[in-house]
Amino acid sequence: MKTQEFLETLKEHQGKSLLFEYAPNLLVGANYHITEVKHVTIDSVDCGAGVDAWKETIIQLWEDPNELGKTEFMSASKAIGILSKVGSMKPYVADADVRIEYSNANFHAAQLYVNDYEIRNGNIIIKLASQPTDCKAKETCGVAEPVGAASEAGGCAPGSGCC
Q1: What is the pLDDT of residues 44-82, one digit of tens each?
Q2: Do residues 41 and 53 lie in contact, with contact meaning Cβ atoms separated by under 8 Å?
Q3: Pairing relation of β-strands 123-129 and 17-23?
Q4: Cα-flanking dihedrals φ and ψ of residue 29, to 5°?
Q5: Rg (CA), the chain
Q6: Which residues have CB under 8 Å from 156's CB, separation 6+?
Q7: If you placed Cys at 35, which of 1, 62, 89, 100 could pair as Cys (CB 3.0 to 4.6 Å)?
Q8: What DSSP line would sit under 26-58, residue for residue?
Q9: Dist. CA 142–CA 159, nearest whole Å
């Protein structure tokens, strides 16, 4: 989801509680805070010597250990207030992909894509998903189809002109 769409979705549902589903049926605790917003520019070179650049908005969530047992989630309205203040200090790139950075004691730190959202029981539930790594230079490297590991592909072996 793009940053502008994410912000508009929250504005559209300001009266609802804002929940984040970081894995199927697993929610970020009600004790979460928005602790940082990153405006990131990625400037990359892939294994086939292709260059690319794009922007991302990364919103970091943190569960406050002093608020364990909290049951009332942040409202979409409060989140919009926080994100609007950030946007007034450092403007957003509207078409930047938005990601949510999160971890807890049972889930590794990850930057998760906003995959979808759902309205349920007066809540807006932001559905997060990971995105697997991939070879962006399949044609250059001679990789015919996606495979689990580069070593299995044979196309990105030393001397192949890829890696």
Answers
A1: 999 999 999 999 999 999 999 999 999 999 999 999 999
A2: yes
A3: parallel
A4: -60, 155
A5: 19
A6: 47, 135, 141, 143, 150, 162, 163
A7: 62
A8: EE--TTEEEEEEEEEEEEEE-TTS-EEEEEEEE
A9: 13
pLDDT (tens digit per residue) in 74-127:
999 999 999 999 999 999 999 999 999 999 999 999 999 999 999 999 999 999
User: What distance in Å separates the CA atoms of residue 127 and residue 116, rounded to the nearest whole number?
Assistant: 5
pLDDT at 153 (0 to 100): 45
Phi first, then psi: what are they for 111, rounded to 5°? -105, 110
Residue 117 CA neighbour count, 13 Å, CB half? 23
Instruction: pLDDT band for 162, please (50, 70, 90 cuts).
Output: low
pLDDT given at position 160 = 59
Domain ranges of the chain: 3-131, 132-163
Specify whether the CB–CB gap between 131 and 27 falls below 8 A.
Answer: no
The answer to whether 59 and 92 are in contact (CB under 8 A) is: no
What does the alpha-carbon distance between residue 23 and residue 82 come to, in Å, rounded to a whole number?
25
Work out the percent of the chain whose per-residue pLDDT is above 90. 79
18: its two tokens: 């804002």
pTM of the model: 0.86
